[in-house]
Amino acid sequence: MSLLAFGLNHRRAPISVPERAALDETSLSQIIEAATASPDISEHPVVATCNRTEIYAEVTAFHGAVADLTAALTQATDITQDDLKAHPDLHYGDAAVAHVFNVAAGLDSMAVGESQIPGQLRDALGRGQSEGHVGTNLNALVQQALRTGKRVHSETAIDEVSRSLVGEGLDAAEEHVGALAGAHVLVVGAGAMSALAATSAIRRGVAELTVVNRTHERGVSLAERPGARARPAHELAQALADADVVISCTGSTGLAITLPDVADARVARGGLPQAFIDLALPHDIAHEVADLSEVTRLGLAELGDRLGPGGSVPEVEEARTIVGDAVTKHSGQRAASIAGPTVRALRSAAQQVVERELARLGQRTPGMSESDRAEVDRAVHRIVEKLLHAPTVRAKELASDGRFGEYEDALHQLFDLHAEGGAL
């Protein structure tokens, strides 16, 4: 059994590809069902967010699991096998363990150090546990990764140097419309990213903040927290006309803001500059909006380009050190857990042989002194320990790399091992 992390690399793929890979509830359920049906996959939480489509799976066969997950993703979404081959996010064994830890710490995000991913991982883990397709192995992995991510944020200053997509979007908007202190910001949507956008805008000291959401009650709830106001969805046109900056992240599968919507708003505004920040996947705001006069539109691709890879700043390096140490520790524990039963069986079998042979020696040499017998006993045990050292270390190495199966079978065949110890 080994860990496989499989999905689409959103950071390297053209924005049109991850948009086609975005999962709604139906497609997410289809992928979970397909993974559950695979004979090569046991546990498998699915992380589906606006910036990530990944499956973490305990697998018994690498190629069979990849084939099944590829089929699941291509059947449930509009992406093709060529898309996955061109922009894969594929990790196996220790590399997969490291990937999960990096994700939890925000080191694999478009915005390095993003604070939203721990909650998204917890949601995926919780769903997997409630639906019965996450067990003890992946629960331990994700929980430890989340604890490590929490350490990264509490023990380093990564939050100060790693701006979120929202923060970068507000920076870009300010460059276009002027100081946010005098701006009117409209947030479309009421999910977690929208809440972050609303809070961030208030902290920037915006003059006004409006929230529009399809379910008005949720919009009202969000607007109450930062001291903004909520407008019902049918007032979107007027809200667009009033806004200097529009931030949208609705989770809708269609456009939330069309070109005619913005064109009408532009007439009502008399041509004043306007910035549109699209944080959704699939995108909420029509791409053609960027072609209008005095309008800028930034989606995930443009924000990712502005953020860059995070660089080698000291705070990020500190975070990587914490994650690296945690990965090494967890990988060792995981390898010991996987190889443990066979190693214990091998050592138990060796101990039984030693005890039988020492007993036989005692019967054949009744005149041997106690000190000589003790020295023989120590010598035999030292020899056995030296002989078992290499296969024990190799067993843990192969277990860590996900290649323990054949070696385990060989040990059982060579030494006639039973499940938890002993040989015939």
Automatic annotation (TrEMBL):
<protein>
    <submittedName>
        <fullName>Glutamyl-tRNA reductase</fullName>
        <ecNumber>1.2.1.70</ecNumber>
    </submittedName>
</protein>
<keyword id="KW-0560">Oxidoreductase</keyword>
